[in-house]
Amino acid sequence: MELPTGFDAQDLGEVLDALPSLVAYVDGAAVLRYTNEASRTWLDRAPAEVVGRPVEELLDEAGCATTHDRLVAALGGRTQRFERALPDRGGRARHALVEMVPRTRGDHGDGCYVLVTDITRRVEAEAGHAASVVRSALLTERNVRAAGASDSAMQELFAIGLQLDRMVRHPETATAEAAPILEHLARTVDALRGSVRHLIVESQPGSTSGAVRYVVELWSGGPVRFDGPVDDLPPEVAHELLGALSEILAAAARHTPDGLSVHVRVQEDVLEAVVTVEGGRREDGPVGTDVEALGPRTLRPGATITVVADDAARTLITWRRPV
User: DSSP labels for 289-315?
Assistant: First the structure.
């Protein structure tokens, strides 16, 4: 590269050292040969302490597990782009976008360039938006249920009103009809109290399947189908399902897919949500790249996310947990 007039290699080094992102070069033997000053932030060491050392010596066990296959692929000539979570010095989760771009010399590979960028704010914003989608779905379902409970109560009260009106017009029947009318009124009030308590205290959606349809509609509007007793899920499991679906659909939507469909099923004490993404590939990687990054930050104990892509540009994303 030819530098502009009056701008030398030292100036270029100062520019790179001023960047908050980590910029590095790894040779074909997976040894770090250059890094800018951001190594102090990302590796907690000065450049002089890390240059000349194998990359995997600089990472913890989780970092090695996340990075090894990606680094091998990049050194083999395939560009890599993925996210990983890193704890900062205070123990707070920090999210990084890692990009590995192969370097070629002539007709053969010669290591790769690495760029690590802090995307914590973006990740937290997306997670907040996904959570708001779930809250909207739950609120919508509760409103539907509340409207249904109110309508039912109004019908019962209307029937009681007719009974009272008949009793007023025929006072000779008051002795016989008063007790059944009072019992009917007590049952209606108890039912209304129970519906309100269920909506406010238990915080369970009136229909988990309805809430799922609402979440899917907000992200894609694709078809949804259900197998098994989905509406019988405990509230905490229903919330977890809705949260996982919202995160997965948000990640898929960033790739502008040709279509999305969702299949939720409960079979043999296992809850499973399968999202089928048609198309959805872009220059910086397939849908699976973003979805795989969800695992470390969204999965609760016992839950898993698997991603399978086929040659027809279709990706199957399966979220699973025991019930």
Answer: HHHHTHHHHHPPTT-EEEEEE-TTSEE
